[in-house]
User: Which sequence fits this backbone?
């Protein structure tokens, strides 16, 4: 092998390998933040709705603190190499999408758009060839949200909150019908979308139980369904 | 007498010709697969959309019509490939043609099911693969094999499972799910008889069995849910609808 | 399933399955003839060249007797379905190609062409969508021939026939250079072609041994190489 | 505020766009693989043909020239695909692009070896993948990765083994085989250092090791054969040539 | 090789090969009957319990018709060679065990013993060195039965029969605790036994659903839970 | 090879092979005891809570009888070689952890700590280089416990015990949140932990069913939901 | 499950499991003897032919000592169950066939027949439903013999014995042509038979080397080539 | 979960995870040294024997430099935990054994004993519960040596050194007969030992080629064949 070429190749591999280590460090940070937020949000299943605002208040600063990690990663990744490295942080990023969208839902019952998610995670458009939020990861985050909401629908009834399932039902059906618009390959996203159907069905059953027991106050329902 | 070189030159031409044709068919098969898959998503999408007042057709029928219209592209692609798959070539390149063809049959049979609630016959599938004038056997682009027909249809049951489960959250979903279940059970039963003769069918039959059990479990859950109340299921649906729609 | 369709499909499968049985019977016959001829030809490695004509005389009628089997098969196979069923008899057919080409080589040292092989096996052009000899199978037969000739080169020297290796060498090199003309996929034919190189090399070694020991009569060599 | 439907409509467009691009690249990669494979056969064919008197070039050099000319097609295909693989897209579709690219590098490096007897540098490979004006980095169709370069070159050793064994039956084959062996040993040695960093390289290295051993065995056989005689190998070759050519 | 010895070897190989063909024919028959009965019994999931007796009436004659196949096989197999050939029909035989045990359960809710299964399949003790029902195959048939019963528990509820799951639960738990007392090797049987736990759990969940909603008559529940 | 060296090598290989056989015997004993205890504890799913103390009384002596096996193994294993041989008994040991922790939960509703489990299994600290209870195996046992408790929650409702699911829910949520704080590698333990989510969800659904129908005494529910 | 039936099942499973252990012990003995004899015979490749008789004298008593193991196994195996257990000792038995046939070849150059092999291994006809030597295993032993003889041909030339390859060549060709007359199924035996061709070819090349260099006495060569 | 207990668990998991990282670093170093030495030794196939001493001189210091890594690892591994972590460096260690034994063979043609290998790798007996050279790994290294020597036999002939194959043959046969006396289990080592037969055969064929053509000095041959 041409000695100059050999050295060149070795240098490139060496610098890639160092880069990988540096990104890995950031990803560990990212995963730690994700674990902290998921730990907090898990409590939503066992507290009365009145305490939810406090819970969200404890999560928001952590969510914001991810901005600087994203920035660091965006500076580490060489131009145009976003897709080369993204597998390293995909899991973390998807759970951030879930956290942001869950916080938004618990705050005002609305769906966080892709653009707003990007903004909330502090991801800048100018980084786009180095760090971005692809549609696919956003969609994964939404599916995780629906999984969690079917659990919340169950637990809120246990805690005596009979309005929540109706609110969740309308919200989830809207997301579900959005997903039916997509042409998916036989990949993980499609399999997770298939599983979504069971969440929708489960939530329907709860609405059914609650409705037939006439536990849902008329007004709450009509306010909700106008969303 | 020809030199070995010139003889082998002829062989090379023949082998190159064969490999090129094989490549063309593999690529066409990928395209056909993609069109068919997209059509399947389209069918789900329209069939599950809520019926709008004033529509003459049910969502299922209009899904089926749009789906079939979409699938005409596939027929046209086969017509264009006719030279590559006519006569004894069909069997030579069966391995390359089958994957796309089976996906097409899956899409076509789904469209048929949505409109008629029945299984499309092999003859009906064959009829969509005629030359331009739509005339009988002499105009076949290629003959449909029993194996492609059955394996294509076998994949249908997976889509029907998705369709049935999605329907359950809709009004009238139980009835739809029950009739879909009956249909899938019929497929399972009828196809069992073919497993010894059709390669790979028994693997697909176990997927069908899984799909069937998933629908059974879902229907069970609904029955359990409604059994607690002393009212007919339809009335219960209406009540819930009244309450939730304010 | 539509009852009429069900019956139709069943009928088709039934008739295919019967057809398979009928072809299978013929293939068993075909394999038996192949075994007989290979058994005969195996003796060529241990008899003096003077006895070869008698040996060939015993093989030729068997080779001719395959015509009627080919005819029967060609009548069994439905129009256009040659490629559907051919796997059943491919092995047998390839060994017939080998036998025919070996007999030809032993007779006059020439290479049997594809057309002549087809003729010698009694395969009619008019059957072409039901029974034919594809190029690929012809080529497989030739590779088997080269494998066998490298063995024959060894044994003919042992038997004191020092001209044979030279004849074989020229013949095999010609076939080898023919094969280099082809663009093969990474399939069995390519792998067997790769192995051909070793046969050519082995035969070269024998030519080398024989030449350097000056065992080859001048004249025999010059006659041969003019082929 | 946008409806969920219109938002997801945009997602659908983006996902469809991505899948279509992926399909295009898969098909192009198959075409590039085929051209490269055919070129490799062409290189073997010409390089092994006996040198004819009066030819200015050796068969190896003329093989290399014809092969390179053939491979310009590949460059043109990449140029046409430029939009689909430019910028950050290259890394997104690397899995689809790599198979064809590595086969191209295999063919290109074989042509280079035949002409120069050396290993083509990564820079030289990159230079064949420039835009129309052949200008530096800014005109790259896409940047060549270390991995594609090494994995492509790795496959070269298999072709060199075939080339060396086939050469052995020719005059001067021993010298060719010995120099090819030295080259393959060098590849094996140099690449061993890269195995921890390049995925799948160690699998290819064991194929390289096999190829190397095959050449070693073949060269051994020749040495053994000639050792029995008390004459220099070249003289022996000449003697045999004299005898067999009458 | 001594010609007499060679002939002897060939005769033995030949006769084994013919025997294999003859047994294969019987096995095809056996598989056909198995498919027919499984096809019939599959209907039990969609018919009201009142129609079950008719269904069973259609299966029993087929089950009896297997006796003659078993007899034929027992006559084909040479003395002492049961274990040599049994792999050929093991699958069929196991599904017969399942069919017999399922019919018995549907008839009177009891478990068919090994001895009774042997009798119902018309297997004679005097054939024991040529055709028998090994313990292992009996146990495989029972596991298949439990798999099927978990499906039946689901579908009987769908058909409005809320007592069936309780009956099935008691029956299956009995078999399950029987299996836990067996000393199974680490083989396929052990792995399939491990899978039984999922069936037991699923049936328990159905009994839970029915009990929670007080859908089954009181008595049925208490009978079950006393096990 | 030097005969002395050869003998040395062979002696070492031979003694390892004999040791393996001896440990195997003990492991068979260990597995038998595990089967017996699992068989007993399986009955907890179908007996009224009043009979549980008797059931536990029958399990405890068996649990104690494992001490002597552990001692025997600890004497067989050569100094420092704990990690060499432990794979042989890992499965058995994990199920003992499960049994001990299940017995403790059924006795007083508390979680058995690692230290207490070690004590209950009669494992001595002084054996630590030959026989010990690693953290990993303790955690595997706890996950098995949660799997079993989700089944118990189902069956206790069937048996009319509506408080048990609430107790189980609180206990399991505590374990679950403990696990979320552990830094697990991407291995089997992590995968099994992921599966815990399903058990938690299932138990929450049972609590929901019970709450919705107001089947549990008020106090029990509120205690639970305050967690 | 009926307790009596359960006990019966368990007894049968238990006794099979014990029997397996007992047979295993014998098989270990059998393998040890096989290793010893193969170790001895391996020396044939490096000793002058004059020392071969002594070597054979050391092997024969070991071969005879296998009789008692065969007898023990034949007593362990229950009546009619030969085919059930034979897989356990098949490998050992095949290498005994090889040893017996190799010893015979080295003694007088003849082929040991199936009947004589059975006799030499001390296998009694009256055990036939419990322990026998099937044709298949005899043939496997012969193929192993041919593999070994191609190695011996190489090494005898190295040792300066140029007649041995000629003797081996004649012997192996006879076996080879015997095998071509057998109707083998598409199984391991067939595949191993295909590999025989390489041994035959290798031996032919050795005979070539020897003939070319006129190393063997004239008479020996002509005897060989008349085959 | 008790917070103290939880902390304890987490600490243990955490420290194991850190230890793993630290050992990994050393293993990377170890692999690098292994690659360097293998790279050097690979040249032995293409250089004249006169240059071998220089080559060995360049390898020895690298081999010695592994001592300090072994020491570092022995200090990282907690007491008694050798068998827990050894899988991490097994591959590297086996290739060191190969290197040491190859260097020894090339130096004076002798076999490096287990004790000498341990010494040459600088492994201290006092580390035995933290770092040692198990018999199994020593044997793996020897098998790799034999694999390499069969290649060296080929290439030394190519380089005109006709005595080397004879030396290699004697050395390898000695190792081979040593292995046949070991009682290997049916594991990877046994399978690799089976593959040794091919190396032995290949080397025998090279010795055959050299002897047949009388290429090696008489004395060398007779020394060899007397083994
Ligand atoms: Mn599908
Ligand atoms: Mn290649």
Assistant:
């Amino acid at each position: 092998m041409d000695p100059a070429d050999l050295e060149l190749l070795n240098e490139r591999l060496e610098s890639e390998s160092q880069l990988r280590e540096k990104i890995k460090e950031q990803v560990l940070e990212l995963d730690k933040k994700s674990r902290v937020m998921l730990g907090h949000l898990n409590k939503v299943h066992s507290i009365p709705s009145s305490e939810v605002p406090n819970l969200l208040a404890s999560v928001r600063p952590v969510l914001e603190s991810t901005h600087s990690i994203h920035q660091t990663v965006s500076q580490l990744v060489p131009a145009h190499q976003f897709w080369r490295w993204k597998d390293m942080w995909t899991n973390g990023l998807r759970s951030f999408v879930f956290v942001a969208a869950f916080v938004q839902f618990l705050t005002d019952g609305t769906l966080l758009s892709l653009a707003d998610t990007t903004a909330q995670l502090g991801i800048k458009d100018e980084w786009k060839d180095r760090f971005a939020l692809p549609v696919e990861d956003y969609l994964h985050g939404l599916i995780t949200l629906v999984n969690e909401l079917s659990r919340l629908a169950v637990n809120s009834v246990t805690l005596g909150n009979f309005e929540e399932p109706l609110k969740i039902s309308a919200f989830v059906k809207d997301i579900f019908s959005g997903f039916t618009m997509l042409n998916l390959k036989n990949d993980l996203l499609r399999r997770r979308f298939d599983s979504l159907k069971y969440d929708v069905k489960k939530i329907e059953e709860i609405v059914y139980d609650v409705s037939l027991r006439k536990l849902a106050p008329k007004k709450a329902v009509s306010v909700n369904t106008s969303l | 007498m020809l030199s070995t070189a010139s003889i082998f030159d002829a062989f090379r031409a023949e082998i190159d010709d064969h490999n090129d044709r094989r490549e063309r068919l593999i690529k066409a098969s990928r395209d056909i697969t993609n069109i068919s898959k997209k059509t399947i998503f389209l069918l789900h999408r329209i069939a599950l959309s809520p019926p709008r007042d004033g529509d003459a057709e049910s969502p299922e029928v209009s899904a089926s019509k749009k789906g079939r219209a979409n699938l005409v592209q596939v027929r046209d692609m086969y017509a264009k490939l006719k030279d590559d798959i006519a006569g004894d070539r069909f069997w030579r390149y069966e391995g390359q043609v089958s994957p796309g063809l089976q996906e097409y049959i899956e899409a076509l049979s789904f469209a048929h099911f949505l409109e008629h609630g029945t299984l499309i016959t092999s003859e009906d599938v064959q009829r969509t693969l005629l030359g331009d004038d739509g005339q009988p056997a002499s105009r076949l682009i290629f003959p449909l094999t029993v194996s492609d027909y059955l394996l294509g249809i076998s994949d249908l049951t997976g889509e029907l499972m998705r369709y049935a489960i999605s329907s359950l959250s809709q009004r009238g979903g139980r009835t739809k799910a029950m009739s879909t279940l009956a249909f899938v059970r019929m497929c399972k039963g009828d196809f069992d008889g073919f497993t010894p003769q059709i390669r790979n069918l028994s693997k697909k039959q176990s997927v069908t069995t899984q799909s069937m059990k998933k629908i059974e479990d879902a229907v069970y859950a609904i029955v359990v849910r409604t059994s607690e109340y002393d009212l007919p299921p339809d009335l219960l649906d209406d009540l819930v609808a009244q309450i939730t729609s304010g």
In short: Residues 31 and 219 of chain D are 37 Å apart (CA to CA).
